[in-house]
Amino acid sequence: MRSVLATLLVHADQVVPVSSLIRELWDEEPPVSCLTTLQTYILNLRKLLASATGMSARQVASEILVTRSGGYLFRTTQGDLDVHRFHQLVSDGRRALSSGDDSTALSTLSSALQLWRGPALVDVVAGRILEGRRQQFEESRLVVLEYLVDTQLRLGMYREVLTELAALTADNPYHEGLHAQYMRALYLNGRRAQALELFQRLRVNLVNHLGLEPGPMAQELHRSILNAESIDAQGNLRRPTGDIVRMSSSGAVRVY
């Protein structure tokens, strides 16, 4: 029943076909009684929602967990779900970043991440649909964390990001963007040797497990740290020639 509710919620305000719910619960081997069992789950969910909201089961069926042709729809209003609030805060934070307002971006993106209380869908047995959404949510969280760390570094919060980045790189051993941010933070904190060790750890993980070398962004940053070149809070490398090397999150490296 929990999986049915989760599937409906990650598709809130959309009709979820009965076939999709059956596939989520039983994959390609549904029992003969699958349709009856699914209908029982929906009935029990409506009873739970009625108890939680003080509405009658009939009201819940017409206003919240609604039967539609070929499937079911979970109706929400704005602000009902944390994920909707998360995406709104992220949009606000990105607009602040685009306008150069780092202080507002820091506050807004931090508020978005505070809505997380652990891994997405951690207490739900996930089939194909929920596993895909779980990965989508986790990737979205990582992207926002990268935005936030970039903002903190621009604001000079070098020490504040170290603990978070240590945990993130340990949990994501192949994520070059997070490792590059951690290398920058370590170097800006005067911990050059640790920044170089971190690159080697990333390289070993990529080569041994994926057969890949680190990309241009991480390699350029490594070379600059190795040569003790100056790196500013935006991640730009200042060479003795006066050239400025800008590194984008996509891995592109440009010399100005």
UniProtKB/TrEMBL annotation:
Protein's name in the database: AfsR/SARP family transcriptional regulator
Start-end of DNA-binding region: 1-76
Family matches, as SUPFAM superfamilies: C-terminal effector domain of the bipartite response regulators, TPR-like
Keyword Transcription regulation: yes
Segment forming the signal sequence: none
Key words, A-Z: DNA-binding, Transcription, Transcription regulation, Two-component regulatory system
Source species of the chain: Streptomyces violaceus
Residues of the OmpR/PhoB-type domain: 1-76
Cross-referenced SMART domains: BTAD, Trans_reg_C
Pfam families associated with the record: BTAD, Trans_reg_C
Family: Belongs to the AfsR/DnrI/RedD regulatory family.
